[in-house]
Design brief:
The protein is α/β, with parallel strands linked by helices. It has 10 helices and 14 strands. The strands form 3 sheets. It has a 10-stranded mixed sheet, covered by helices on one side. α1 crosses α2, α4 crosses α5 and α6 packs parallel to α8. Bound molecules: iron/sulfur cluster.
Length: 342
Amino acid sequence: MKKDLKSFTRKALVKEMASLNLPPYRANQIFQWIHKGCNDFDEMTNLSKSMRDLLSRDYTLTALEQVKKQISQDGTEKYLFQLPDGEMIETVLMRYKHGNSICLSTQVGCAMGCQFCASGMEGLVRNLSAGEMLDQILSISRSIADRISHVVLMGSGEPLQNLEEVVKLLNIINDEEGLHISLRHVTVSTCGLLPQIYQLAEYKLPINLAISLHAASDDIRQNMMPIARQYSIDELLKACDSYVEMTNRRITYEYALVPGVNDYPEEIQKLAQKLKGKLCHVNLIPVNPVDGVFPAHHRQEGYQHIVRILEKQGISATIRRELGADIDASCGQLKRRSKEEL
Ligand code: SF4
C-alpha cells in the first residue's frame, strides 16, 4: 500500500526522503507543497520529473472528496467529505472576526455512546489518519480561499482514542513551513479517557483541553455518558489537576444543560464545589435537538442563574452561543452519513 505523505510530520518526511537519497531541502519543498493544498505530485514544479515519478510510484496524497456543503443562516458551514475508502465524515467551519475556525472529526463514528450525541449512535467505524484530519483543513481552506486560524477537535469521534495520530496532526499543523497554526488556537476535547489524559499531559503541548463533564454527580453522569461507569468524576478531576500541573494550561469543562437532568441549582452548586479553586472555565451548552435524543426540551434561554452560581465560587463560566443548529452542525449533531442519505 502506498504511504500517505500528508500523514508525515516534517521531521518524519526528512527521514523518509533520506531513504530515497533526497536531501532535507527536498523534503521541505514537498512539505510546503502539501500545505499549500497540492494533491498531485505533478504540481510540485520545483521537483524534477524523475523525482515526481519516484514519489508517485510509492506514495500518495490523501484528498477528501467534498460531497456536500450546507450553509446555516448564521453563516456556519458544514461539509460532508468522502474518505478514500468510501466512509463519510462531517466538518464544520465557523467564521469569526478573529479568524476562521474548523471543528474537525477525528474518527468515523464514535465508540463512546454519549446519550446526547448523534456521532456515537452507530458506534465506531475507524480512526482517521493525521492526513485525513489535515485534509479537512486544507480542503476547506482551499474552498474559501482563506486561512484557517483556529482548530477544534470536537467533530465526530473521541480524539484521545486516536491519540497518536492526533498528536502527529498537531505537530504538522503547528509547523512554520506548513499551516503554522498556533497550538494556543487548538482545542482538543475528550469525554474523559483517564490514561490518555495522563499521556497527553506528558507532551506538554500548549493546546486547550476541553473535558466533557456534564454532571457533578456520578449517577447522573453515568446515565449520560457510558465512560463515566469506568471512571468516577473525582478520578477524572484528579487527572485534570495533574494535567494542569504538568502543562500550566487552564482546562475547559463542557457542561451540556439537559432540562430536568443536570440543570437544577443543587447539581450546579455541587459542580461549583467540585471545581472551586481550580484553573478552569465552564462552558455551558444548551442541548441541541438530535433525532431521537432529547428532541422535545430544547431550551436556550434562562441559564444566567447557573453562570451566577458558578461565578459566586470564583469559577468563570459562559453559555455557548449556538451556531449552525438549522443545518445540524452544532455540538452533538454531527453524524455518520451515508451516500444513500444524500
Ligand atoms: S460526545 Fe464526543 S465522545 Fe461522546 S459520543 Fe459524541 S463524539 Fe463520541
